[in-house]
Amino acid sequence: MRIVADSSCDLYEMEGLDFRTVPLTIYTDERSFLDEPSLKVTDMLDYLENYRGRSYTSCPSIDAWHEAFRGADEIFVMTVTSALSGSYNSALSAADMYREENPDVKISIIDSLSTGGEEIVLLLKLAELVNSGADFETVDRQIREYQKHTRLFFAFISLHNLTQNGRVNKTVAAALSVLRISVTGTASEEGKISVTGKARGEKKVIANFLNDMKEAGYAGGRVVITHTENEEGAQHMKDAVLQEYPQAEVLIYPTRGLCSYYMERKGIVVACETA
Known about the structure:
The chain is α/β, with parallel strands linked by helices. Helix content is 39%, strand content 27%.
C-alpha cells in the first residue's frame, strides 16, 4: 500500500513505508516557493516578512498527484481540508484518471478536514493500520472511523497571511491581532479555521491548549505538536502535556513551507486523539 499526502502534512518521509508527498506552492508577484524538501523555510519567511505585496498559495496539479500514484496498486491519499484548498478535488480528479488507466487499482482519498499536526496524527494511525497487514477495505474503514476522534488547536502571533487569503475574517483578525498576543482557535468540523480567542504569554497559551484538549475529550493518547521556528515553545507544551498525562505519546515536528506560510513565525499547532 502506498500513502500519498500533500505537503500540508508537514512530513517528508515515514520510515518503512511507501510514502510520498505532493508539494503545494507559495507565490508572491515576484517569486514562488515550491514546498518540496529542498525549500529553506527560514529564507522564505525572511523574504515574506520584508515583502509588501500580495502573497497566496496554490494546490498541487492533477498531474502532480497522478505522478505520485504511478506504479501503485493500493493507494491512500491524505489532503489538506477541502474547505480551504482545492487539493482534495485535484486528488479526486487524478484518481479518476489513474483508475481509467488501471481498472483494478484501489484508491481512497481522505479529506483531513484539517492540516499539519492533525494530518500527522491521522497519517501515523494510517501507517499502523497498513503495517498491521489488514486488507485495503479494513484499513479504509478504520482510518475514517479514527478520524472522528482527532482534533486540532492553534495559537498564532500573526494572522496576516491567513487574513489576506480569506482564511480568517478580517474584522475578527483586526480585533485580536495585538502585539505579542497569541490568537487561539481550532479546526471546525467543516474543516474551516475557527478563531476562539486570545492569550497573552506562553503560560496562558499552554493553559488554553490543555483546557481545549480536555474539553474535546483528550485522555492521554497521542499528541502531535507542530511549530514554525518555535522549538522552545513546542517543548514547553510537550512538557506540560506529560506533566498531566505521563503516559502520553507527544511528538514534535517543524512545519514545512505551506503551514509555515499560514502559521507564520512562532505559530504552534497541537493535534490530539480524543475519546
